[in-house]
Design brief:
The chain is an all-alpha fold. The chain contains four helices and no strands.
Length: 91
Amino acid sequence: MRPNRLQNALAALGDAMREVNAAIEERQEEHDPLASHIFVSRRNYRNMQDTKSGKRSDTAARLSWQQACDLGFRGNLEEWERLLGTASRRP
């Protein structure tokens, strides 16, 4: 085995590690729009003044679910409501 081969491999490994670390840092700096939407939707739902029938919160949950689907959420409306922390539905 040639001594230069090991040094070249270590240098290539070092370059690859620097590239991976840079990509990780870049990814951490980006904001996830779906995560932001979930955070805002939970806060809005929790602070919402609702009517007796609960229609206002149902409408808000459905509209925020539709927007979440546009952002990449793959669950159904019931899963979204559970994520928001809504009370269980009446049978």
